[in-house]
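ok so for the tutorial part 2 we go from a plain amino acid sequence to predicted structure tokens. step 1 is just haveing the sequence, like this:
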Amino acid sequence: MSRAFTRRRLLASATAALGAPLILPARVLGKDGATAPNGKVRLAAIGVGGMGTGNLQSFLNDDRVQVVAVCDVDARHREAARNLAGLKEGDAYRDFREVLARADVDAIMNATPDHWHAVIATAAAAAGKDLYTEKPLAGGIADGRAVCQAVEKHQRVLQCGTWRRSVLKTRMACEWVRNGYIGDLRTIEIGVPGAFAISGGFTGMEGPEEVPADLDYSLWLGPAAEAPYTAARCHFNFRWINDYAPGYITDWGAHFLDVAQWGAGMDETTATEVSATGVTRREKGLYDAPESFRIEYHYPKGPRMVMFSTTDQTQWGVRFIGSTGSIFTENERLETDPPSLRTVKLKDSDTRLFASRSHHGNFIDAVLTRGRTAAPAGVAHRAATLCHLGAISAALGRPVRFDPEAETFGSDAAANALLTRPLRGPWKLAV
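step 2 — the prediction. this is what the tokens look like for a chain of 431 residues:
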């Protein structure tokens, strides 16, 4: 049955799937430099429009969290979040650097546009803050590795917003695949939307326009290339513009490629040969990211994997195809062939995957105990790398070969030039 997964429905589904946080015994709180016993994790939210608001609400619902600051370059988002969190005017910021300078902030939630992810994540780690950061982990492959290095160097907890790792049915599907209940895993098919969900009804991408008084557009651009302001460029629609993100390749690909890696047991590596074909873009206007595509991923050892764009909403998700059966998973949707797979009970000897009932709650667990998260930096980096490999192949119009150990394209200078996003002005990665 067709299911219209709008951004609002996704957010609602995520909230419903997350459930109540896991409450830990008081004796384990305060371990290894975490928040003191009976204390709360003092959290600041950076980027509080759209998904950032949903994340903020989830943390406000956790009794172990005290939200102490909000930050956004748009005063409208900032004020709405301040009111939601019940904060004073002095606890709402335009510039994230002021938030990171606060000694009373233990952790941050970062839901800024993709081109900001690595800059803010590395700066937060260097400032001693734990991080809940939205997907993809970074805007480029080398940028993602920098985030991993910063988190390791400063011994920070990181949870990436690839929240399907905290969905029970997704984990069940991946456990069945990992334990051979569909036979030998041969193919993974990943369907993502095939037309941009443009917010605000923009068509011709008019501009330039006068920058609204309540928006710091220069700070919104930050490390990205200088560009004239138009409302069609900012907030939700940034993801359709290559200067900031390659469309659904990362927007939904970051979620579904992550699930594919999890089910295939390939969290520690990536594909070595990637080919994007059937790539189309809009002929006019700002929105120049790939809008339709078919990306094939090949591993030296492992299944063949294909991510494709489609307007058939029933195909949006991940399908694992084995020698004796198949499993389709997307959030609370779980389908098996044969249907009897749904009755499988794991044996004591079977591989069990990391269990999290609440993605946001699991992050707070880890902050308090210095334990692991469902989607740590290294895992999120490998999933995001798959997205970027597909985008690079699409940009070059040809296949690429990648070395997962060196994280380079060997002697392919054109592809290597796309390993990182250029950082404009004073912005840098704090590693």
